[in-house]
């Protein structure tokens, strides 16, 4: 932190691996909250009757929503694997900074691999 004249404090953030892990974890958490709200809305349509629910499901079956579902898969994978990484750090299993960075990149690689594999399955389901 740097103090400037007048007593104000200017915070200076260094964008390193840990910062990106933190930001992505918060953003993925917000994405999951958005999905939860959307899921509650869908449940509301179930209670309105089969016609209302079928109309909503028709809307949610469009390619845009399928693409967003694939994005949701990426959010879930990143948030869950990063959560495991954080627990490992909190339990003291991953202590050194170099190991923490390696654990982050492992989370990213495993998450991306699962996300792209899921994308192939999504495409096969949409076209088949």
Overview of the structural elements:
- The longest helix has 32 residues, at 17-48.
- The chain has 128 residues and is mainly α.
- The chain has a single domain, classed as 3 helical TM bundles of succinate and fumarate reductases (Up-down Bundle).
- Strand 1 and strand 2 (9-10) form a beta hairpin.
- 80% of the residues lie in helices and 3% in strands.
- The protein has helices at residues 17-48, 50-60, 63-90, 97-127, and strands spanning 2-3, 9-10.
- It is elongated and about 55 Å long.
Brief account:
This protein has 128 residues and is mainly alpha-helical. Helix content is 80%, strand content 3%.
Identify the overall geometry.
elongated
Rg over CA atoms, rounded to whole Å, is 20 Å
Percent of residues in beta strands? under 5%
Strand pairing plus helix content: what structural class? mainly alpha
Based on the structure given, which CATH architecture is correct? Up-down Bundle
Along the chain, the helix and strand elements come as EEHHHH
- The unreliable regions are none
Output the CATH homologous superfamily.
Fumarate reductase/succinate dehydrogenase, transmembrane subunit
Mean pLDDT over all positions: 89
* CA distance, first residue to last residue: 56 Å
CATH topology call: 3 helical TM bundles of succinate and fumarate reductases
Describe the largest sheet: 2 strands, antiparallel
- Order of strands, widest sheet: 1-2
- Count of runs of 4 or more consecutive helical residues: 4
Q: How many domains comprise the coordinates?
A: 1
Number of strands: 2
């Amino acid at each position: 932190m740097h103090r400037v004249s007048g007593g104000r404090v200017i915070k200076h953030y260094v964008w390193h691996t840990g910062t990106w892990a933190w930001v992505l974890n918060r953003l993925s958490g917000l994405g999951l909250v958005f999905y939860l709200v959307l899921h509650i809305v869908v449940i509301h349509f179930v209670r309105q009757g089969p016609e209302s629910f079928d109309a909503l499901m028709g809307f949610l079956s469009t390619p845009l929503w399928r693409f967003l579902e694939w994005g949701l898969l990426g959010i879930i994978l990143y948030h869950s694997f990063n959560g495991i990484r954080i627990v490992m750090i909190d339990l003291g299993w991953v202590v050194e900074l170099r190991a923490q960075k390696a654990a982050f990149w492992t989370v990213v690689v495993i998450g991306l691999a699962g996300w792209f594999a899921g994308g192939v399955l999504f495409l096969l389901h949409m076209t088949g």
